[in-house]
Amino acid sequence: MPRTLVLALALLSSWGGLHAGQLQFENATVSTTIDGKVSRDIVTLPFRWDLQYPGLAGSAALEFEFMADQLPQSPFGFYFPKLGSAYVVSLNGVVIGRDGDLLVSGGQDTGKAPRLMPVNAELIKPHNILRIQLRADSGRKAGVSAVVIDEWGKVSALFDEYRLWRVGVPAAIAAAHACLAVLSVLLWWWSGRGRLDGAGAQPIFLFSAVALFCWALRLTDSIWETPPLPWPLWGAVPVLGLGIWGCCCAHVCMVVAKWDDRPWATAFRLWLVAILLSGLVFVPWGLIGAHPALLTIWYAVLGLTLLAFSVGLAKHSMGSGGNAGGRLLSGAVLLSACIGLLDLLRMRTHAGVADVAWLYYASIVFGLILAITTFQYARTNRQVSPKAHQAA
């Protein structure tokens, strides 16, 4: 595995000193060594490894120098919205924080949650050097966000607020999706036993359950620092889960919209199956083989397919042949497809503070609408059964 040494000497921010209040590093001069070749550049934090060195893995060492004209009397803190894949942080030669293994790649990913490190006032000197050592795994959005230094109470408040949105909210949404998935499985089982006309269980409920479960898995992975399988082998699991989620949702929408008997329905389902089967090849190849472009292309094909489908569904649902469930689903699918494609473009071209997908938060709308529509379908379907039995 190629190893890269990055030495970043950060420039002071416009506040000019620690005594002036919050200090945030933004600009850095970077020296890199890749396969024996040394190069230097100037970058702006946040620094994301995958955008600078796509398909490569290695290590990094960053050094930030700052002055303290007035030595603080109260404890300070260092706040990192993102710091990974593993790190050791030291101030003036004293280690103030470490997590993960710098030597073993593919292990814990510390970049999935913000980091907060307390610093005793005695460690702050007139001239200070903050050093960060990183392990950077390819494809895991490794890197460093803008470093914030301030009084402990202020940085802890920033940390708590961001951790709530970065970890707490996705965890709650994942738990809600998992509960809805269990209810959908129960509906699938109940739909077969509850029918008086002898019909079997309705597949729509099983497809809904699979979609909800896969999205719960995807959300859990976004905050799961130590996965059950090593990276990049585990990386293919949540990506394929995203594809299964999208394809199952499309199938549920087709059933609700009563598109099952359309001439193009079979061809579209085969196209969705083809996307999933191609993902079994392109996703592991892109992650394990260090070809991120393959993963981007697969994401784009999936997103554009769902976008085109959602536009057609919205057009149909708004017409005379549409129904309330179809209208709700079409709006939710269209919103999710647009946000998903925007996430793809944003994460492939711009290094955000922590590179969190907006789709994680918007998915709560789609998950609720999918569950409500599915439950309404179950209620309507059950009302049909006694009528069919009486007619017989």
Structure description:
There is one protein chain. The protein has a seven-stranded mixed β-sheet, with no helix packed on it. Strands 2-14-7-11 form a four-stranded antiparallel β-sheet. Mean pLDDT is 81; it is low at 1-20 and 384-392. It has two domains: 5-146, Jelly Rolls (Sandwich), CATH 2.60.120; 161-391, Up-down Bundle (Rhopdopsin 7-helix transmembrane proteins). Helix 2 packs antiparallel against helix 3. The termini are far apart. It has helices at residues 49-52, 152-193, 203-223, 236-256, 265-288, 292-317, 324-349, 359-391; strands spanning 5-10, 23-24, 27-34, 37-44, 47-48, 58-67, 76-80, 83-84, 86-91, 94-99, 115-119, 127-136, 143-144, 148-151. Strand 3 and strand 4 form a beta hairpin. The longest helix has 42 residues, at 152-193. It is built from eight helices and 14 strands. With 392 residues, it is of the alpha+beta class.
- Determine the number of helices (DSSP H or I, runs of at least 4 residues): 8
Order of helices and strands: EEEEEHEEEEEEEEEHHHHHHH
Strand element count:
14
Question: What would the CATH topology of the largest domain be?
Answer: Rhopdopsin 7-helix transmembrane proteins
Low-confidence stretches: 1-20, 384-392
In percent, how helical is the residue content?
A: 40-55%
Give the rounded overall mean pLDDT.
81
Secondary-structure map:
Layout lengths: L4 E6 L12 E2 L2 E8 L2 E8 L2 E2 H4 L5 E10 L8 E5 L2 E2 L1 E6 L2 E6 L15 E5 L7 E10 L6 E2 L3 E4 H42 L9 H21 L12 H21 L8 H24 L3 H26 L6 H26 L9 H33 L1
Parallel strand pairs: 1-6
Antiparallel strand pairs: 1-3, 2-14, 3-4, 5-13, 6-12, 7-11, 7-14, 8-13, 9-10, 9-12
Helix pairs in contact: 2-3, 2-8, 3-4, 3-8, 4-5, 4-6, 4-7, 5-6, 6-7, 7-8
